[in-house]
Amino acid sequence: MPRHFIQIGDLGKDGAMELIRRAKTMKESGFRGHCMDGKVAALIFEKASTRTRVSFDVAVRQLGGTTIFMTPAESQLGRSEPLRDAARVLSRYLDCMIVRTFGQEKLDELMEYGSIPVVNALTDQGHPCQVMADLLTIYERTPDFSQVRVAWIGDGNNMANSWIEASMYFPFELSLAVAPGYEPDMDLMARAKAAGAKITTSPDPREAAKGAHYLYADVWASMGQEQEQAEREKVFKNFCINRELMSLAAPDAKFMHCLPAHRGEEVTDEIMEGEASIIWDEAENRLHAQKAILEWVFSDAE
Ligand code: CP
Ligand code: NVA
Which residue from 135, 239, 246, 263 puts its CA 20 to 30 A from 63's CA? Predict the structure, then answer.
């Protein structure tokens, strides 16, 4: 059975923390490895990407493999070839599919009909690779996650869901402020709370920001929701992370963002560019976290 990375839970409780430690070691040593020697990974992207595409491409190469980049526009995927057919064919050429798509069920179909590892490079439901990189970024500053409070401020989107999932596997507190009607996956939330995750929710960003060590923002309209942009700008207008919101957080609190950011919407330019911002380290850590993920995927190969 191939090892898939679809969600953080695939790593298991100890495995998730172990992966963060491994990513840190890889980063510190400038690790180059061989676990993908001779292997070819397809980067199948149905949505735009800068960080995920490039960091995965580099990660695969630094582990000895090569990549093929595919989009629906330039393959039969865009001409309604069933995914289950593509999955079976591609599995006969490739060693791994790294996939960015819309519904999570597309990953399920690739796993069901394919026979090689599938890695989740973002869906409408989650972005686990990003949150693993975010956790590495926090771990570098606060190694004891039980001392950490993360405030999620904005839409209850794919990123919010992956933060909720992460709170089941790492002992940080998560305070969410989302606008009514824009809640994250409430089934996931219920499962996380039942598993002992320390999550609080509020419609008030100030409530979530109070005492937080890391304030996290994402765009208000995710990819695929562009037509809702104007409406969402109205709904979320009080959710901008600005100087006032940062002043409610813990002393020396940091600002995080998965990027790309819309300055003047979910965050001010002053906070993006200011001393509290750790967004460039966070973006760099995509590479290191994903090398550790790929190593985990291929550690069970053969
Ligand atoms: N954060 C993130 O996934 O960025 P890209 O959309 O550029 O890959
Ligand atoms: N929520 C955003 C994240 C981008 C990295 C989106 O899905 O567009």
Answer: 135
Return all residues near 158 (Cβ < 8 A) that are at least 6 apart.
122, 123, 124, 125, 126, 127, 222
Ligand nearest to the CA of 266: 2
At 280, list the tokens. Answer: 């460039």
pLDDT in tens, 230-257: 999 999 999 999 999 999 999 999 999 9
Distance from Cα 54 to the centre of ligand 1, integer Å = 9
Give, for 199, the enclosing helix (H) or strand (E).
strand 198-202
Given CA atoms 62, 123, 229, 202 in this order, what sign does their dihedral have?
Answer: negative
- Ligand 1 touching residue 301 (CB < 6 A): no
The residue whose C-alpha atom lies closest to atom 2 belonging to ligand 2 is: 222
Query: In the numeric block, which tokens belong to residue 299?
Result: 């550690």
What residues are annotated to the active site?
100, 127, 130, 218, 258, 286
Q: According to DSSP H, which parts of the chain are helical?
A: 13-29, 51-62, 83-91, 105-113, 128-141, 158-166, 186-194, 205-209, 229-235, 243-248, 269-273, 279-298
141-158 pLDDT, tens digit per residue, is 999 999 999 999 999 999
Query: CB of 186 within 8 A of CB of 197?
Result: no
List the residue whose alpha carbon is closest to atom 3 of ligand 2: 222
